[in-house]
Amino acid sequence: MSQPGADNNTLAQEVTMTETQIDEVLRTIAYGFGVAARSPIMHSPAEHGLDYEEVTFPSQDGVPLEGWFIPAPGSNKIIICNHPLWFSRSGLPAHLEPWKSAWAATGNDFEVDLVPDYKILHDAGYHVLAYDLRNFGHSGAANGGVITAGVFEARDVIGSLAYVRGREDLREMAIGLFSRCMGGNATMRAMTTHPEAFDGVRCLVTPQPLSVRVTLERTLALAGLPADRIDDLEARIRMHNSLRLDDMSPVPWAKNVMIPTLLYQVRDDVLTRPDDVQAMYDNIPVAEKKLFWIEGSTRRWDGYTYFQKDPSQMLDWFGTYLK
């Protein structure tokens, strides 16, 4: 979830940087929490022959959110899709600059196109609502543009649920959630602050949620910086968004997930650690839960594209609980 915030050469160095260079790396990483890098919307449902509506609706606190509604005629089920950090509803063009240089050292310098996911869901018989979280894509700027890894973005999840329930043609739909990375964090945060908003929501599939502290510890290691600089980095990020790193962890929020939940994660993802997702899973208090690991990769993006390669487990989950 966290952008490395330094170029390939800097990330490749070990502990040979001067204090001035270290300061620049820390400044750049922290700056990423103060200014959201908006991913352009590079793809459209029309590329896959899908009819869709351009829709707009307010977040819980009034921020204008932009999205697509993709109808599945005759269906009484809808999936709301919440995207990862740095992405838009259509994905992330990490094969292009400036994203390519930012992510190359982690192996994640290839495009993630999320629109095929919506095609798979549509063809499986689900209406789809995919939208841009605040400060991303075409949605409104909010809170000074700061990133909070789910804290404020939770209001957008609540707004998306209110939109579905407020449409005459959708209000009786069975609702499922497909919430990736920060979208998953935001969903669990919203379940913590406003559990009533999830009354009647049937299930959740959440790929690769993670804690900011963990991903920043990994980012420091990739940059060749000592682990004890995490406190310095935390102080700098707090100057941008007023939050401590642990304020942005979904691990405690997972205790408030009260619906059937499927998590999945690239086990050897270079930007996190398996114990972080495991801790979330362990904290979910319902019996109807599952965690599976994607093996054989260190690239986080492989977790985001996994659904397109083998959607069977996720479709089985939605099929079981969206009845």
Sum up the structure in keywords.
323 residues; alpha/beta; 8-stranded mixed beta sheet; 12 helices; 10 strands; globular
- Low-pLDDT segments, ≥5 res: 4-14
N-C termini distance: 32 Å
> Please, how many helices?
12
Q: What proportion strand?
A: 15-25%
SSE order in H/E notation? HHEEEEHEHEHEHEHHHEHEHH
Strand order of the largest sheet: 1-2-6-3-7-8-9-10
How many strand elements? 10
Radius of gyration, in angstroms, nearest whole number: 19 Å
DSSP helix fraction: 25-40%
Give a quick account of the main beta sheet: strands, pairing sense, barrel closure. 8 strands, mixed
**Backbone shape:** globular
Q: Look at the helices and sheets and give the structural class.
A: alpha/beta
Explain the overall architecture.
The protein has an eight-stranded mixed sheet, with helices on both faces. The protein has a two-stranded antiparallel sheet with strand order 4-5. The longest helix is centred in the N-terminal third of the chain and has 13 residues, at 19-31. Helices cover 35% and strands 16% of the residues. The radius of gyration is 19 Å and the shape is globular. Mean pLDDT is 93; it is low at 4-14. α2 runs parallel beside α8 (230-241) and α5 (154-166) packs across α6 (182-193). It has 323 residues and is α/β, with parallel strands linked by helices. It has helices at residues 8-12, 19-31, 99-103, 115-123, 154-166, 182-193, 212-222, 230-241, 250-253, 274-283, 301-309, 312-321, and strands at residues 53-58, 64-70, 77-82, 91-92, 112-113, 127-131, 174-179, 201-207, 261-266, 289-294.
